[in-house]
Amino acid sequence: MNVLRPYIVKQWRALLGASIGTVVIALAELAKPWPIALIVDHVIGDRHAPFDVDTGFLLAIGALILAIAVAESAATYFSNLWLQSAGERITHELRVAIYDHLQRLSLAFHQRTHKGDLLTRVTEDVNDMGELFSDTLGEMLQSALLAAGMTVVLLYIDPVLALASLLTAPLLVAVSFVFRRRVRERARKQRRQEGDLASVANEALSAMQVVKAFGGEAHESERIRDKSEQRMGVGVEVARLQARFDGTIGVLRAFATAVVTVFGVIRVSKGELSTGDLIIFVSYTRKASSPMRSFAREAAKLTAALARADRIAEILATDEVIVDKPGGYSGPRAAGEIELEHVTFAYAGERPALQDVSLTIPKGSRLALTGESGAGKSTLSALVARFYDPTQGTVRIDGRDARDCSLHWLRDQIAVVLQDTVLFSGTVRDNIAYGTDATDHDIVDAARAAAAHAFIQQLPDGYDTELGPQGTGLSGGQRQRIGIARTLLRNPPVIILDEPTTSLDQASEDQVLEGLDRLMRGRTCLLITHSPRLARTADQIIELDHGRIVQTEAPVA
């Protein structure tokens, strides 16, 4: 619960009000048998019908019953309102906090973590935290207060009979403890399996074209079925535990009720207990099974919620971030000189992807990186963009260590055009202006420069055309040109192009190269490419092999 403490403290007023309301509800529940007990002892007594009734006293009893009901209803209303409102606010703030933290975590963390599992934590796990307050905690507090109140009242009325009614209490506590421990173990397993299930589903749905191309629908359905059956199995185990617990509680409380009834009648016959008090005893003893069962059930939910809280805390406690140095450099626009000095980098637990690389890219020049897949080209570009920090060595921008620069400033200086431009749900206009406050005029100018304006105008609603997920409906070349327009709009001094023309046909490549030529003018460019045509546009070509520079040459005209 430590992870929730800052969010709980903010809602202390609502939670305090809800707690007071819960106390009133428990008191009202305790008071319900008393009017009947008063009638039995003071109105009916030992009389036989017909007999006279004290109308005033009877009306007072009726008013008491009404007052108890009104107090309970009002307390229930405000308690539920405050608890649910607090739960919604806590859910909102916790969801925003975990999502913000995920945005800060390094690219390496996101590359090795299943997206489906992260989505489960941001949505379902966080929602369960809100329900913890709106449903579970209030019910547990009310059940605990009711059980404690019943015990105190019974001890006050008749300590001997009260102790008899509590004979099964130690066994109830032991059963509840074992039940909660087993439920928590299974809840943790359940959440892990739900994360795995979401990851498998997300993976398949994100690659549906590949699934259908290889006829893998049945295989993917089987994968989901297997994961779902594992999740179902744990769910059935929890249900079996719950049913077993409910049955055990019912038997124990029935035994306690039988003991109270038998010994209670004996004490009434001896004049040691009134008939009304016996009614209260039997009523409380029978009701005691309800708060005990409710408390145990909600305690099981609390146990499961704590397992979810552990998963949230695991993310919030992850400190794998690119450090944004306090007071880091954030001066004017960079000139664009890039220098790598004896740079070595290795992913966690793997061999070095780059080994002792030193090179300089003068401002305004173009450097092409070539080499086989896995040679280290994309890793080198990621270090320049500071998606990672080198294991050894230094990356400099205009002679300044990139680690000494503000991340916000650095992101403004360096733009990346990927092999397959990522587009978001929204309009074409929104995608071009992503991350900026560009005007419509600026957006159109950028699209013209990227050779994208003509095809955008032919879309159903032009720049206001809504794009589907990942830009569905656009060709690869069209998506690339929108990506180039988006980069042009930012006007960065340094451009990284990661295989920008791969998988394009000749006509699309011609159009993309037209936009790229405008994009690269006057900027420092790092080209990662297998295309000889694109490499020849560079001022210098460097070949990497197993993380080392093996050849440097000027392009052949």
Automatic annotation (TrEMBL):
Give the UniProt entry's GO cellular component terms: plasma membrane
Q: Name one GO molecular function term.
A: ABC-type transporter activity
Topology versus the membrane, per the UniProt entry? Answer: Multi-pass membrane protein
Could you tell me which InterPro entries the record lists for this protein?
AAA+_ATPase (IPR003593), ABC1_TM_dom (IPR011527), ABC1_TM_sf (IPR036640), ABC_transporter-like_ATP-bd (IPR003439), ABC_transporter-like_CS (IPR017871), P-loop_NTPase (IPR027417), Type_1_exporter (IPR039421)
Major location (coarse): membrane
Write the signal peptide boundaries: none
What region holds the ABC transmembrane type-1 domain? Answer: 16-304
Domain annotation ABC transporter: ranges: 338-556
The record's annotation in CDD domains points to: ABC_6TM_exporter_like (cd18564)
One Pfam family cited in the UniProt record for this chain: ABC_membrane
List where in the cell it is found: Cell membrane
Q: What is this protein called?
A: ABC transporter ATP-binding protein/permease
Source taxonomy: Bacteria, Bacillati, Actinomycetota, Thermoleophilia, Solirubrobacterales
